[in-house]
Specification:
Elements lengths: L8 H27 L15 H52 L3
Helix pairs in contact: 1-2
């Protein structure tokens, strides 16, 4: 007897819903990283505080790094969500075709 596999379409639908929720949350994280993490030059003190420029530059570099990470994670989640949706559609169509052929349609 051959092994048979069954795809639980409701689990795929649940996965798609959860991925959409993650993407929605990622939107607020991206917005926060872009718009709410600003450190203007001079905000850390006067010219006597020589490390101020280094700290501001380090902040700017970290801001860019975080934005890049958020964009990369967003892209991966978006791709995974689209692929999961496509797989769901293929399995749903295959199930429909199988039921139709068994009922003589």
């Amino acid at each position: 007897m051959s092994d048979q596999y069954k795809v639980d379409l409701s689990e795929l639908e649940d996965t798609i819903t959860k991925l959409n929720g993650v993407l929605s949350s990622m939107g607020s994280a991206k917005s926060c990283a872009v718009n709410q993490t600003f450190l203007p030059q001079g905000a850390l003190g006067s010219a006597e505080f020589v490390e101020a420029k280094e700290l501001t530059d380090a902040h700017d570099a970290m801001k860019v790094y975080l934005e890049d990470i958020i964009n990369a994670v967003h892209d991966v989640m978006d791709r995974f969500g689209k692929n999961t949706k496509r797989v769901h559609g293929h399995y749903s169509n295959a199930e429909f075709d199988s039921q139709t052929s068994m009922s003589g349609g």
